[in-house]
Design a protein that fits this description.
Elements (H helix, E strand, L loop, with lengths): L2 H8 L15 E3 L2 E9 L4 E11 L5 E4 L5 E3 H4 L8
Antiparallel strand pairs: 1-4, 2-3, 4-5
The protein binds zinc ion (ZN).
């Protein structure tokens, strides 16, 4: 865990950027289920997200403050942050 991540952990955050310590400008790629609509006659093909979304430790996270990006596990203070 980086020194800035240690600071964020002390303030009870779960995720912090390993590079700059940011906790407010993070983005994560999520998985969601979506209803697939297919109407070839009208050339209408759509997906509509249903229910909740989730992400795993090996999904992608990025920091909009410093542009650092990596797996969620590197940001996750509860799992030790970046090794
Ligand atoms: Zn950052």
């Amino acid at each position: 865990m980086t020194p800035k991540q240690l600071e964020a952990k002390a303030a009870n955050y779960q995720f912090a950027c390993p590079e700059c310590g940011d906790t407010d400008n993070l983005r994560v790629a999520v998985h969601a289920m979506a209803k697939v609509t297919q109407d070839p006659k009208n050339e209408n093909f759509e997906t509509e997200i249903e229910g909740d979304h989730e992400f795993e430790p090996n999904d992608w996270m990025l920091c909009n403050s410093c542009e650092y990006e990596g797996e969620v596990r590197c940001f996750d203070l509860w799992r030790g942050g970046r090794p």
